[in-house]
Every structure is written in structure tokens, then in C-alpha cells.
Amino acid sequence: MSLNQNENKNENLANTAFISEKIKQRPINRKKLFRRTVITVSLAVIFGVVACFTFLLLQPVFSDKLYPETEPEVISLPAESASNELTPEEMIADENEIAANEAMSLEASQKDQIDQAIASYVFTSKDYNNMMTSLKGVASEANRCLVNVTAVSNDTNWFSSSYESSGSTSGLIVAESSLGYYILVHYQPLSDAESISVTFCDNTRADAQIKLVDNITGLCVLNVKKSSVSAETSEKIMIANLGSSNSNSITGLPVIAIGSPIGVQGSISYGIITSEKTTIDLVDSAYKLLTTDIYGSSSGSGVLINLSGQVVGILDQSHKSSELSGNICGIGITELRPLIEDLSNGKERVYLGIHGTTVPQEIQTTQNVPAGVYVSKTEMSSPAMKAGIQSGDIITAIDDLEITSYEQLISKLAGFAPDDIISFTVMRQAPSDYIEMDIEVTFESSTHE
Questions:
Q1: Which class for 406: exposed (0-12), middle (13-18), buried (19 or more C-beta within 10 A)?
Q2: Which of 327, 345, 329 is closest to 337 using CA atoms?
Q3: Pick from 11, 349, 78, 105: nearest CA to 212
Q4: How many other CB atoms are there within 10 angstroms of residue 127's CB atom?
Q5: Cα separation of 38 and 46, whole Å?
């Protein structure tokens, strides 16, 4: 073999050796890779958190701009009315009117004829039946504003078997808005309810939700959405016509108890108001108790209406004395009207925590007692007690506004809100005289949802 051939062979072998060399990859820096991964994940989390907070902050703004919410309607009850109420003009007789009435008076002979005709008329059972039919017509018409409220809850018996229980009570349709109907009802039968439904006068049903509960009276207002009530039912039901329980003396006037006065839904009872002046001993209030001669159940519920169909009282058997154990009683509607409006509007009411009464004028004069509200009792752990108001104190002013009666104090409280800090001026009896004190009270709420 020649020298050139050997050189070529060696060159080919060198090239082959070079081509067969393995190319090694750079070693992976695991620490650096882990650090980059952590940084990337952290940045992603930070970006997600920032995006989330940005959305939460800007979402209400965009929502309000794109879908503005309408202000809720304010529920306002019609002005108090009473079928037997006299206007000042009617109470003052004009001299010309008196003269005209005297000129138009019947002659003695004509009066005698009328008296004889009345005395000779014999009232029969048919007349009595007509009268009772007329009264039933008043009750039937008023029943359109009543509903049967049913509370449903799940319980467990002694054998740990679950079952569904329900209770019912009567409710009163007190107002309506474009969104729904508002129903006044006692809260106690609904306190453990998992769901609430109402049955209207045409036996149709709808779900209801609690709007607000008053802890003092135990009353609450339910809301039923109009979308859950058919047009036919809306035409049949009626908003209650609220009358007056104190414009004139209603003692001795006939009333009808409707709802479930004897504990049976749809029952009706007739009678008269036997008293109206008793003030119910409840905190921060001066509700009047209406007593009747109507016999009813201790668990009865419903309303008292006059012969014009106006609601004059809400049945409540929890405040009567033991002597009236079998008689139906109720809370006068006049004092309840502001509470009904607040509950319907979802407005929280303040809790002060006192029982009081107006200092009589005679006591002011004869015993030299300051004018104002005499505090007969303060509730334990109430805002009044925490602030230092004691039994025996006389409240004479709130925020520099002079207070001369308990009713004025209650009316003033209605204008405040929970957590308001208000200055009370009280007169406290000392060994020789009364001393004036300024006490700051932080109100709490007397309502809950």
C-alpha cells in the first residue's frame, strides 16, 4: 500500500472518531429552576389576589352604573280614621243651626204617634236573623285582609326519628308596595320556623319571609313577594282598614273578633269593648289594652273590628289579668301604627330600657316634684341601667329638648337609631331637694331580623 493511501486511511479514521463523539448537555441547576418556579407561582398568586380585590372594589361601581337599583318604597299607613269621630265643627253647634233644628222639630202629637208606632212594633226572630246576617257580612268582608300564617320546622321525636311539624296563627295584611304585601303577625309561633307560608282568603298559598321583629311587643312583619301572588288572588285580598282605638271612648261599643279568636281559623265572635284605658306594662312604650266580654281561647289570634269593618285592635292574650282569663283582649291599633310602619320599612327601633309614667300635675304642685317622666323601673343590663339611670329618676329633657310626658318621650325615641349617643337630663332626689344630672346613653336595638 502506498504512502498516500495510508494517509487517507488515517484521515478517514480520525474523521470517524470525531463524528462518534458524544455531546453532553449542560447539567440542570435544580436550585435555580426551583427558585424560578417559586417566583413564577408567587407572581401568579399576587396577580390573582390583585385582580380579585380590583374586581371586588370596582364591581359595585360598575353594577350601580349598569344596573342601578331603585330606592325601596317607603311604607306609609293611611291617616287614622274613626267612623264615630266628630270634627271640631260638628262638636260646636251654630246658633242659626240650633234655630233651624228647633223650627224643624216635630209637634208633640207627631212625636206621640212615632213613639206609639215604635212601642207597638214586635221584633221577631227574623229581625234578629237579619241583624246577625248583617254583622256576618261585615266580618266576611274584613276577612279578606286576614291570612293564615303557617310555620314549618323539622323536629326529632323520642326515637330519634325526624318529622315535620307546623303551627299556624292569624296575620293581618297592613300594607303593600310594588314589591309585595306586608303582614303583621305574632312572632312567637314562627320563632323556630324553617319556612313560612301564608294562606290567603281564597285558599291560595305563598312563601313569606320575616322583615323585622319587635322584641318588646313580640310582633313582626312578614313580606310576601307580589310575584308569588296571582292576579286573581290580588283582586280578592284587601289591605286592612285601620281605625282608631282612642279618638273617642270606644268602651261599650260593639266589636267583632275575627281570625282565630277561639283557636280555630275562620272563627267569629261578637261582643263589646269593656275597657280601653289600661296601659300595658311594657318597656319604652305606652300601648293600650282593649278588653272585651267575648269569650275566647288563650291561644287565640286575629283582630278586633268595629261595625264599619275598621281594625281597632290586634288580639293579644298575654297581657291581660287573671280575672280576664277567659276573655279576649287586644292591643289598641292607634299606638301600634308607628311600630307597624317601622317594621314594614325595616327600620330598627331603639331600646332604652325603662318603664315610666308622666308626673301628674297635682303631684308637681302638692309635693314639689319636677315635671317630666318618672322612671318606675329600669331593665337589667339595659342601656338606661348601663348609663346610670335609676328607678325614681325623673327625665326632664333629651338633647336639651324639654320632656313633659311619657308619650312625648316615646315619640322622641322613635326618631333615634341604635348606637346613637344621646344626652338625658334627669332630676334625682337628694335628702333636701332634687339635683340635676346629665347622663349619656348609648342606644341599642329593640328589633331583629
A1: buried
A2: 345
A3: 349
A4: 11
A5: 12
pLDDT in tens, the chain (449 residues): 454 555 555 555 455 544 455 555 556 566 666 677 777 767 777 777 777 667 666 666 555 555 555 566 788 788 776 554 444 444 444 555 545 555 555 556 667 777 777 777 788 888 889 999 999 999 999 999 999 999 987 765 555 554 455 678 999 999 999 889 999 999 999 988 889 999 999 999 999 999 999 999 999 999 999 999 999 999 999 999 999 998 778 999 999 999 999 989 999 999 999 999 899 999 999 999 999 999 998 889 999 999 999 999 999 988 887 777 789 999 999 999 999 999 999 999 999 999 999 999 999 999 999 999 999 999 999 999 999 999 999 999 999 899 999 999 999 999 999 999 999 999 999 888 899 999 999 999 999 98
Produce one character per residue of 55-86: b if its CB has 16 or more CB atoms within 10 Å, e if not.
eeeeeeeeeeeeeeeeeeeebebeebebbeee
What are the percentages of helix, strand and coil residues in the chain, rounded to 5?
A: 35, 30, 35
* Domains in the chain with CATH codes: 144-156+166-236 (2.40.10.10), 350-448 (2.30.42.10)
Is residue 161 helix, strand or coil?
Answer: coil
- DSSP code of residue 260: E
Contact present, 298 and 132 (Cβ < 8 Å): no
What sections of 143-204 are H helices per DSSP?
A: none
User: CA 75 to CA 346: how far, in whole Å?
Assistant: 10
**Distances in whole angstroms, Cα of residue 421 to Cα of each of 84, 208, 253, 335, 424:** 43, 35, 45, 26, 10
**Under DSSP, is residue 70 helix (H, G, I), strand (E, B) or coil?**
coil
